[in-house]
Amino acid sequence: MPVQAWELIQYPDGSMMSRWHDNRLDGIKDQQLYQFDRGDVIHMEYQLDSLSENWVPADYEVVAIESNRLSEQLLGVSTQLQQQRALLNVDRIGQKPQTLERLEEEVRLARQTRTLLVKQKARQTELLAEGLSSVAQFEQVENALAEADLRVEVAEKALVEARAGEKPEQIEWIETRINALQTTAEFLEGKEALYSVVCPIAGSWRREMDLDGAEHLWVEDTTAAVVQIPVRERDLAIMQDSFQLVIMEGDRELRFDILQWKKQGPRSILNNEQVQWVKLTVPGLKCVWIDGKPVPCRIESGEVSVLKYLEEAFEWRW
Q1: Where are any strands of DSSP class E within the chain?
Q2: What's the pLDDT tens digit per position in 66-100?
Q3: Model-level pTM?
Q4: Which terminus in the chain has less CB density within 10 A, N or C?
């Protein structure tokens, strides 16, 4: 198997998931879920055709995603920021405060933002429970919701006081709204970063489709390979810390120096022999390994005296 692999899955409903497999550790190093708002118009463009070879460099953007809804939200927040900063300059030179109509619009926009964040928090709660989202992403949405609640409270208070004929300090109000809008802009920019899918490793790439219609993009680091070999139980005692792995490829023999190995999984029975699977990392095996398929190989651990072999393999003592 490749020493590590990165997998990007695009499901028929448009959602995407990436997994970073580390075959040395027998686990997933990282996992990301990419979900998009229902009804949003999404444009996805794979960036693989621009590569001159079938090789992806590390930290390469493999998919560029454009969201109409997110673009509209960013544009709306940016426009509101400009308006509030202009109003702040106006109020600082002593002109009259904004009208009730503008305050009502402020309340409406603040409530819309809070409703959106409530839905996002509920979705993040489900993803976190399923292990498909990180605590950091959940806390980011939770903090944004808390700030949205504050914005709604400030906007509603300003509207009530204006309708009652009170005239509180406008500069403080506007500064509070500017801070809230800046927080919303930062949240949307962080969300926009998730719309760029970056491959964290370098390796050769391939694409495949499963029977359910999901598309898989694999990037496999073949600078080294993880190999599992069955070793007879009676030979384990005479295995040295370092040895040569010999892989037969047709009439050729490929030799690799192995400096480290470990036992892998429970014992098995193979050809009426009790065997222990041994796992090792083979450097310099680029583009030679065959994913998940057995190949003929052997371990050459050097010569062992007959006496040593009898003592260790059969536990004979003289």
Answers
A1: 2-10, 16-22, 27-34, 42-46, 55-56, 60-67, 196-199, 203-209, 215-232, 243-249, 252-258, 261-263, 268-270, 273-283, 297-300
A2: 666 666 777 778 888 887 777 766 665 444 455 66
A3: 0.52
A4: C
